[in-house]
Amino acid sequence: MILALERFGVWLRSIVVCLCGALGVVAADAAEIPLAVSLLVPALLACGVRLYALRRPRLFPLALLWTLDAAVVVLTGLFQPVIGGDGADVMVEAIVGISVVAFQYEWATRPVAGAALAALGAVVYVLGDVLSSPGHSPDLVPLVRMLIQVVLSRAAYLIVRALARAADRSAAVRAAARREMEVAAARRAIEREYLATLHDTASATLLMVSQGDGRDWSWLPPRARKDLEAMSAVPGFETGSVDLAALLRCVPEGEGQTRVRLKTHIDGPLAIPSGPGLAIFNGVREAVTNVARHAGVREAELRAWTEGAGAVVELSDAGRGFDPESVPARRRGIKGSIIGRMHAVGGSATVTSHPDTGTRVQWRWHGPAGASSAGNGAPATGVPRPPRAQAQHTADVRFIRGRLLYGTQLAVLLISLVWQFTISLRRLVVHQDVYRSAWAQTAAFVCLAAVAAIGAAYLLRGRQIPPRVRGWSLGSVLAVSAICAFTLPPEQSTGAPDWAFGLVGWHALFLLADLRVRAFAAFLGVHVGLNATAVFLSGAPTAAEAAIMGISTISACGFQLSVGVLMTRLLHDTAPAAGIAAAREEELRTRERIHEDMQRDHKDRYRALTATTVPLLVGLGHGVLSPQNEEVRLRCGVEAARMRRLFAESDAVSDPLLNEVRACVEVAEHQGVTVNLAVRGRPGEVPVEVRRELVDPVAVILGRTRSTARVTVVWTPHTVRVSVVSEDCADDRDTEEAAQAHGRATDAKVTVERTTRGESVWVEAGWRRPATSGVDLT
């Protein structure tokens, strides 16, 4: 909007200087034309440079632009003492008056510069008036009119700007509310999609393993590998923690003559993000395969240790070795599977080897600092576009346009009323004896005041003017134009007694502000035509008189028409452009919010799950873990229960905690376990991170129970406790460590107590409710 106003001011002033200057030369005597042209040409050149500066603003400093504007005013003011006469007075008043108004828009963001130029214009006009009429006191009426015009133009700008900013703030609030709705909807949709993926892949596989033995498990390794790939596609998976030591223990050594016996020296556990962890695991697996194929030995050493915030893994053998530089480019085992894979996750890998000296491959994960370019810092690829209906965009544009329309109508109404009850009222009162029918002129004045009052009543109540009321009002304004034109002496047309000529256009602009400018231009054409008809009916004016009338017409109607053009641009061009820009910015913000929230959701949900599920799938996928082993089946049962609890988080139920407990119970019942569930007290709200820590011990114990268990959920006014008793829990030496790994994912302040007597295990997780809960539990 600021740029549009600046362009409007420069173009308006330049056009007025050109047209009014030319008409002023026509009105001058023949002897004064060369001198008038010598003043007009530099003023036009200054205007031309100012117009060019709009296209290349960086080439012109502000001080130079201000000087050019001041030069136009000074050169125009010199017309008055040089040419003299009524033509010079009218021309200078028109150009300087329009210029001081235009300066308020050209320098809208620098009001001091605009005020200084306005003051310079007033000084130039007064000096020109004094020099052109020595011995006479200057006419202060035009000076007062200029002051009123400057104040009104600045006030109009401030009104429109204030309402435009208010519209921006309101649109931002509306957009923020809509963004929250879109983000919530997108999060729910994405979560359903990923939970369905886990349900159909890893969860189903682990549940099948936990339920049976003595069957053909040939389908399991490839399916486990595919499930691992499906989990890896879940956003946030790459940041979930996994024990690298557990993964490295699952590296397949091969079978028969291709078996490579690994001597492992691992300082564990080594907790790193699952993305780099799987990259290292797959790289080590590829390197072990290369040892079996090319090294000529059947033994290798695998070492792993921590280094700062990262980890280092090294595989070495004493085989025949090779020259890494001589490996053909088409061979991608080292370049792609080992080195490239680590670079993709923000780590590094090196291969050191020489003929007959063996080979050493080293993987380095540099910690969170080295991973800034991968994982979390990756762009939001794969984030679905937020739903943005065309109706919403149209509503935004309509809202912005409505506020701009309200601001411009309010500004034009202010100009109309102030102009009518200051300048026009004074002219009407002072020149009562000039009019052919003074009562008709007075009635016309009252009619315009009534039109403004009716329009203001609708505007201030925030309502549009009805078409019928607008039609009658426009008809009344045209009637005023005709009455004033035909009851005024022709020689006084557009002169000082003609109070209505420069006023009726503002009333019409107020009424036609919401329409295209051609409607207002048509009205001005009729208005000028009525006045021209009244003049020509009394005889054709001289060239000088016609030039003076032309200058007055440009000064009044030309300025009003340019304001109408500006309003049309603001309402029909700037408002849609602002709506489009706001929509694009809002879409970007929404996409970023969806990405951020999606990453946070998956980090919270899958961090602990990844640490225990990934080693299982890796071991099952590469044949290191056997589904016929009871311990493996029990671990699969625990992970299946944890996943079912995760799925239950998304259910819309009145008691989420009990719903998640029941999800774990259902998994245990599918495995043939009889579970007795009891609930005591009145349920209340429990944060999701607390529910995770309360239910996880239940999932672990139920997953390792062989026949019978009892689960109890107790609500008291101050605490929530979830306990499980297993009569024949399998050896759970890893249960407590796994539960602690899950507990480190959040700061839920959940306490866990555990008692073991033989095969009977009792575990209770408790959470103390905040004192401000306000829920009456019994």
From TrEMBL:
Transmembrane segments: 10-27, 33-52, 59-82, 88-105, 112-128, 140-160, 404-423, 438-460, 472-490, 520-540, 546-567
Keywords: Kinase, Membrane, Transferase, Transmembrane, Transmembrane helix, Two-component regulatory system
The UniProt record lists the keyword rRNA-binding: no
Coiled coil: none
Domain called Histidine kinase/HSP90-like ATPase: residue spans: 283-364
Pfam family, one: HATPase_c
Superkingdom of this protein's organism: Bacteria
Molecular function per GO: kinase activity
Transmembrane in keyword set: yes
Any Gene Ontology biological process: phosphorelay signal transduction system
Protein name: Histidine kinase/HSP90-like ATPase domain-containing protein
Organism, as annotated: Streptomyces lacrimifluminis
